[in-house]
Amino acid sequence: MATEFDARRSEALAWVARLPFVSASQLALLLGDPEPTVDAALRALERPGWLDWVDSPVLDAGAGRLYVITGEARKWVGERFATDPAVPPLPMAHNEILHRLAGIEATFAFNRFIAELGSACRREPGLDLSEVLSLPVRRREAWWPAGVYGHAVLQQGGRIAPFFVAIDHPAAPVVHRAATIAGWYAHRDHGRRSASSAPIVVLATEDRTAEEWKQAVSGAAERRGVLPLEVVVAPPGKDLRDRLLAGLRWRAQPSSCQPITSIFDGVPETLPRSVRAHEWARQVVGEAPARTRRAQRERVSALSLFASPDQLRLLETVGRLPLLRESELGLVRAVPPPLLRRQLERAERNRLVEVVVRPNGEKHFVLGEFGLKLLAARAGVPFRRFANHTPFVAALPGAAGGRLQTLIRQFEHTVGANSFMLECLRNSSDPGSPALAVWQNPIEAVVRFESGGVRRALRPDGAGEVVQEGRPHSFFLEWDRGTERINVLLEKLTRYAAYYRSASAASADALLVVTPTPHREIVVWRAVSAVIRPEAERGVVRTTVASLVDQYGPYAPIWRQFGSDARESWPG
What we know:
- This protein is α/β, with parallel strands linked by helices and 572 residues long.
- The chain has three domains: 2-268, Winged helix-like DNA-binding domain superfamily/Winged helix DNA-binding domain (Arc Repressor Mutant, subunit A); 303-409, Winged helix-like DNA-binding domain superfamily/Winged helix DNA-binding domain (Arc Repressor Mutant, subunit A, Orthogonal Bundle), CATH 1.10.10.10; 411-568, Trna Endonuclease, Chain: A, domain 1.
- The chain is 44% helix and 19% strand.
- Helix 8 (207-224) links the parallel strand 8 (200-203) and strand 9 (231-234).
- Helix 11 packs across helix 15.
- The longest helix is centred in the N-terminal third of the chain and has 20 residues, at 104-123.
- The protein is elongated, with a radius of gyration of 28 Å.
- 38% of the residues are buried.
């Protein structure tokens, strides 16, 4: 039996079709209705089988439920309009829903931007948000550039202004932004029909990333010797309306897409029951992981549905700081032990983290393959690019797991360097003492510089920054176990000397060397005198013994400088 939806219900359903996982508060802005009215309409559409919902895993006070068209509803719409060219390419396929669920933060950000823009247009006389579409996953015949999330059209009188929307994520590496922009230039250079009239609006999450986008766009244009792309970068917390209107290209042409509210005229009164998203996700997470690409994509999407912001931060900590024990993770995360234990047990059960068990029974945690895939999906970055260009260390199969295998082979060295940073954290709680503000693992700590016209890399065991009385003090850490031959030590110090004498060096960077014994400390100073003496005389190099760090703490007077046997505190 067919039924007729009233106009507002059809419009609400059409918005959900175009914006999967939209919230009731966002729909209220788009429809101009009170949120309770919209919420009641959505629940009424849920009962006959048109809508499904998930609890929002995004940290947003007003998010609540996120609505999506059910599988049976997507099937009905697809069958009815599969051959109609007037219907826009709605994101209806199962893999489209998986894609948006895996990257739910970008999904939510796009929907919120569209809702706020629609509300702003309603307050502006004569300005309408005439078309909006969350674009499907990249297709070979796509008319939109790769890496954009959606497409929208503003209309004012007889003029329209189309534009694309791209979503930034702070965890995305710089190389991802560069690769995305390269794809945009290639799209424009190949003369695709969308290129000449639709600028790209980038929703940046931080002022830092907004500046990276701007520099990447202009730098790519200079390298190619072409005009820069039409890109509007929107920093966070800024009113975009005026900048957006000024940056768009208006043309006197009617909109080409037809409204889709008519899709829902004459629909069935009820639809067969679809598997609810939460039911599907629990089933997928409860099954043993499979190696097929589709199964892994489904598992990552299901895990994303259950991943709270606190759990994601735990995964980021385990990935950045591998081989910490549970108590050490509690110190870093400042989480009560019972809560941390539950989070770790759940993450281990879902294969998000793995455990390295030592012969003495101690458990050290590392990021699992699905944990890294989940972080990559939430950042909107291809997995291999994310694994190769971010500082996360994970238990990956084959050669891809080389980072972790290196740290495990050098286990005592890795754990020793971690222990120094942990001591800095423990002693940071004392009133008036320096506080550890930055902790970088060996991958994050790598510094690339130019010396004598040659590109070189400095690879310390770690790096960080402590703050004392408002003043930052940055440092490199070398955890010396006394097992390296003297020529290896000399070569490492030679790199430090080249760095400190290069234009890239920061004068505040101290080199802290922790040795196992006083005798090894003497050996280190002999090497320093032979290789890096001028810098040592300036007080750049400081050494101590690991037992002194354990006994008195890293901020105590335990550090030696060049030419003196006396020990002083650092920073001092």
